[in-house]
Design goal:
Radius of gyration: 19 Å
Number of helices: 9
Structural class: alpha/beta
Shape: globular
Order of helices and strands: HEHEHHEHEHEHHH
Bound molecules: flavin mononucleotide
Strand order of the largest sheet: 2-1-3-4-5
């Protein structure tokens, strides 16, 4: 029996979905097609924005400088973070709004600025896989996906699949031509098959770009630590052993 099948049987795979819109429209349908491929094999937790993270970052910087739990929106942010850290697979969805991800998605991502690599990335993120699903009428789906991918890759995720669609003629699901729906379904099923064949008992491979970013930030943190050994981000890096020889992708081993 393949390893990935054993994992699915012994430990139910966990998927956390962050929906960039509450609307049950095209984005929602495309996401459902993707998730349908996991049928009963996965435990799925979904968040809908803005409902589940409704407030903008106020720019107080308390998360960066002191502690993320002091954020005025910590109850929303930490609920999402917990679900993301527990998940084997992360799914992010957004329609393109004026060439970018929805404001609701951006609002949520802003709250995770403290998890960017130059600050305090979660070590679990380095082993995760993610899928981004975006769609638009004509143009902007790719830049909407990039808005999300920028955060994910700076959180430390290397394995990211992007499924981006141009509807071209119609933005109401019932009016989209069947041929177009079939083409989008084919691409989503392929992405789901790729993600189903993964051995989730092993973390994803950490790519070269992620490692290069990590090493650049490590130099930065070491310099910051010389200036102020009490600096929050530096202390986090030091406590994780990353200013020494530990690496988040080595999972408690040294490089
Ligand atoms: C405020 C707003 C801005 C949009 N901006 C774009 C855009 O820049 N490019 C584009 O091709 N489609 C744009 N669209 C269309 C959406 O990307 C999407 O195709 C449509 O809203 C249907 O998706 P939904 O049913 O998931 O909401 C926009 C829609 C809205 C409501």
């Amino acid at each position: 029996m393949p390893m990935e099948k054993r994992y699915l049987q012994e430990k139910k795979m966990k998927i956390t979905v962050i929906n960039g819109t509450e609307k049950k429209g095209v984005t929602f349908r495309l996401k459902e097609i993707f998730l349908d491929q996991f049928s009963d094999e996965a435990e799925i937790t979904e968040f809908f924005l803005p409902r589940d993270c409704p407030n903008c970052c106020s720019g107080c910087t308390v998360c960066f400088l002191k502690d993320e739990h002091l954020c005025k929106d910590a109850e929303y942010v930490q609920r999402i973070e917990k679900a993301m850290l527990e998940a084997d697979l992360l799914v992010f969805t957004s329609p393109a709004y004026v060439f970018h991800a929805t404001g609701a998605m951006k609002t949520m991502l802003d709250h995770f600025g403290y998890r960017w690599m130059p600050h305090r990335p979660a070590k679990e993120m380095f082993g995760k896989r993610a899928v981004i699903i975006t769609q638009c009428l004509g143009a902007g789906g790719k830049s909407a996906a990039k808005d999300i991918k920028d955060s994910l890759s700076w959180w430390g995720i290397s394995k990211i699949i992007v499924c981006s669609f141009k509807l071209m003629s119609e933005i109401h699901w019932d009016k989209i031509p069947e041929k177009k729906k079939a083409a989008m379904t084919k691409k989503l099923v392929k992405a789901a098959e790729q993600m189903r064949s993964v051995d989730y008992s092993r973390p994803a491979h950490t790519g070269l770009m992620t490692r290069m970013r990590f090493h650049a930030v490590r130099m930065l943190q070491k310099n910051l630590g010389k200036q102020d050994p009490e600096y929050t981000d530096y202390k986090y890096w030091k406590d994780n052993g990353w200013t020494d020889s530990s690496r988040p992708w080595k999972h408690d081993q040294t490089e």
